[in-house]
Amino acid sequence: MPKDEQQEERKPRVKPIIEAADSLSLGISMVVAVIIGVGLGWLLKNLTGAAWTFWIGVIIGIAAAILNVYKAYSKQYKEFEELSKEPRYAIKKKIDDDEYDEDEDYGEKSY
């Protein structure tokens, strides 16, 4: 087996799996946050005997799920901001910087 093929086989193939798990983890964390909140509310209801304490736990769980979504959004926004600063993705800046000559015809190519 050539050396290039051996190096190809040894490359870690985990990165796509980690990226997929990161996206999946948001959904899982939302569900877990709500379940923990419901469990907390059920525990409070059993300890105090007041039925309205159950809803406090549910509200805490939903708030935690919303917080998880906000944190994930903030993280992605920062990553996209960094990505937009790379020169190869600065298309808008190129368009704004280019000054088009009104007399020039862009419809046909002249060789």
Task: Draw up the topology in text.
Elements: H1 3-10, H2 15-48, H3 52-84, H4 91-97
Helix pairs in contact: 2-3
Short synopsis of the structure:
The protein has 111 residues and is mainly α.
Question: What can you tell me about this protein's structure?
Answer:
By secondary structure, the chain is mainly alpha-helical. It has a domain at 22-97. Helix content is 74%, strand content 0%. It contains four helices and no strands. α2 packs antiparallel against α3 (52-84). The longest helix has 34 residues, at 15-48. The protein is elongated, with a radius of gyration of 27 Å. The mean pLDDT is 77.
The ordered H/E elements are HHHH
Helix content: over 70%
- First-last Cα distance: 49 Å
Structural class per helix/strand content? mainly alpha
Helical segment count: 4
Q: How many individual β-strands?
A: 0
Shape: elongated
Poorly predicted regions: none
InterPro entries: ATPase_put (IPR032820), MFS_trans_sf (IPR036259)
Keywords: Membrane, Transmembrane, Transmembrane helix
Transmembrane segments: 21-44, 50-70
Organism: Sulfurimonas paralvinellae
